[in-house]
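User: Please predict the structure of the protein below. I'd like the answer in structure-token form so I can feed it into my own downstream comparison script.

Assistant: Understood. Taking the following sequence of 606 residues as input:
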Amino acid sequence: MTDLNLIRNFCIIAHIDHGKSTLADRFIDVCGTVDERKMQNQVLDRMDLERERGITIKLQAVRMNFQSADGNLYELNLIDTPGHVDFTYEVSRSLRACEGAILLVDAAQGIEAQTLANLYLALDADLEIIPVLNKIDLPVARPDEVAEEICSIIGGKPEDILRASGKTGEGVPELLEEVIRRVDAPKGNRESPLTALIFDSHFDKYRGVVTYCRVFDGRITAKDQLQMMSTGRKYEVGEVGVFSPDMMPVERLEAGEVGYVVSGIKSVFDARVGDTITNALKPAEKAIEGYAEAQSLVFCSFYPTLADDVEELKKALEKLQLNDAALHFEQESSEALGFGFRCGFLGLLHMEIVQERLEREYDIDLVITSPSVVYHVFLKNGSMLTVDNPSKYPDLTKIERIEEPTVRASIIVPSKYFSQIIELAKKRRGEFISSEYLGNERMNLSFMLPLADILYDFYDNLKTISRGLASFEYHFDEYQQSDLVKVDILVNGERAEALSFICHRSDSHYRGRKVVEKLQKTIRRHQFQIPLQAAIGNTMIARMNIAPLRKDVTSKCYGGDISRKRKLLDRQKKGKARMKMIGNVDIPQEAFLSVLTYDQATKKGD
């Protein structure tokens, strides 16, 4: 049993690619947690996707034992967190299980947008912040300048900021000593009723749900009867253990410790992130204050390529949701694509990661619709509808006003690109809020931007304008009234509901024309002319025609009077007019897919 005073729970927070996982590797090396033969780069990044992309997607916990200079052996529980804005929810969950945070800043790149966002999350969680300069071994490192940037934000003296290199190991033992000195030991009573917070979980096909928890009071041992405080469901503990970094069974988990619990839970809904575990025989009086539920910002639909895979897709999403609490989904159907699921995500990268995990881990081929956001539609009768799918859009005559989600964005960029960034934001209906200098040459620009207008290529354009030097972070702010319209697509005069979309009125003509152009290329020609139209209500904003197949009815006429040919052509003309009135246009699935599916090659401006 480890003394509470010898336990430290901390995490690493930083912008993406500032070296969190590499520094975690060096911590593991210094503490000798992993055998030298089994050690590899990014040892905490378990998924192939994480290694391929070079980013951390899932938070990972590891217990390390560190022999301090004061002669004591300390138990260090580290939680490695993602750095991308789409995985901020992962960061917020790890903070709830810690007492301190290492704020890691690249000595070459300096403070970036997500650095600030994660710093504010840690401050809100009332954690002890230890600022550290990483990658000081790089030839282009500018530690003195970056140290001044950090001090301008959090205070203190530049010379007091620790300097380390996750690659070479320089300064790493000193950093661990600083963690022991500055981070508070966890508080808790091991004799009190059990309270443990679930901060993550995953599904094991042999053992069921494995819950990751931080114990605040009491203890958990095998054969204990546990109770989930939100649902009241009871389970018997089969195994408890810690991460080292592989799962390693232990006799018990006590207050202040971080580990996992296997209790035979089969339903993914009985181990919700943020729930409190207590002892069923001696329950706690109240649950631990958990995290706020993640609010989805981006929505799209997943449909299986094979209709028979709908149930498999549902089971896969449920298991993935257990491992990714920010994922939300509900079943829906489409006249074009059949049965599928409407899914909510924190951003486009989050959406792409979920798609790849479904295809890799569960072997399901997917059709993905274009991403959209949630609109608030206020009706004249005083009620409000939340619309995340154009099919739910009410009749124009019933609408009083529409509001769209806006985000408060932070862009850190060299000051010489100031005017170009302002111009880019204006094109996306953005509103400039403020600016401040970080050091002598970099600025932090704040904007209010419509979420729908930054979904596709905003970040790509931002990187192009700034030569790759800008960083971008955003969070939801509020809903604002906007001039939004639903654009309907008409094929031969009939509305194709599956092809409708919602956009700002200023963008409606462009997008309507692009959809009509795509349909013209993918719908096969019939024996009559097919008009393709984009409309807002009863107003047509774009039109193209698919030319009819022409049959040469005069081919059998080798001569004679011209009136004979005219008679045949007139008869053909009347037949085509009659066919157009009663004929059905066959819209192939390829045509729906070309319009509905998420395709980065069709971004505005291409």
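That's the full token string. The radius of gyration is 29 Å.
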